[in-house]
Specification:
The chain has 181 residues and is mainly alpha-helical. Helices cover 74% and strands 0% of the residues. The protein has 10 helices and no strands.
Length: 181
């Protein structure tokens, strides 16, 4: 009986750990994507593409697609420069679906917004913060953008850090002060 109890306790711990590893993988993937975009912005496309290739490798192991699509059309342009693979094509198809649904059209057709921030908000973060300013809950934002509530919370955490504020209400006031809407 003791062995069965120990095994059951071990399974509970392992399941918890598996969930944390999945979360860490998502953060690592998001970090690689943002680094790749930053290096591209700095005029270092070779390094950017190397990082994005690493991101594709990690993303494929866990099946992430949404994290890629959330970063906007600039990332799609960069990913299209990488050697074709079934997974890369699947990720690019996610961008195409968002464009067809009208979610990326605004980002592609609007002029680049100059942001007085050290680290500017991504197109997706701007979408989230616009909905926050409109008073929409995380659940409603998730439903409208077809993402999980956890992803909304991740975006909000990034937004708060980039804006240097503590909560969503301060974020709403800050983006209005900066004229980002």
């Amino acid at each position: 009986m003791q062995g069965a109890e120990t095994a059951a306790q071990a399974l509970v711990l392992l399941e918890h750990l598996a969930g944390r590893i999945h979360e860490w993988t998502g953060r690592r993937l998001q970090s690689l994507l943002l680094q790749g975009l930053a290096y591209n912005q700095l005029g270092q496309p070779v390094l950017a593409l190397e990082l994005l290739q690493q991101a594709l490798t990690i993303g494929e192991t866990v099946g992430y697609v949404r994290l890629f699509a959330d970063e906007g059309p600039t990332l799609a342009t960069l990913l299209a420069q990488l050697p074709p693979t079934p997974y890369r094509d699947k990720v690019l198809a996610a961008f195409a679906k968002e464009i067809a649904a009208g979610l990326l059209t605004r980002a592609q057709s609007s002029p680049v917004i100059k942001q007085p921030l050290v680290e500017p908000l991504s197109e997706r973060e701007l979408e989230v913060v616009r909905l926050v300013v409109a008073g929409i809950s995380n659940k409603e934002i998730a439903d409208q953008l077809v993402i999980t509530v956890g992803t909304v919370k991740n975006h909000m955490s990034n937004i708060l850090g980039k804006l240097g504020v503590r909560n969503r209400w301060e974020a709403a006031r800050r983006v209005e002060e900066l004229g980002l809407l």
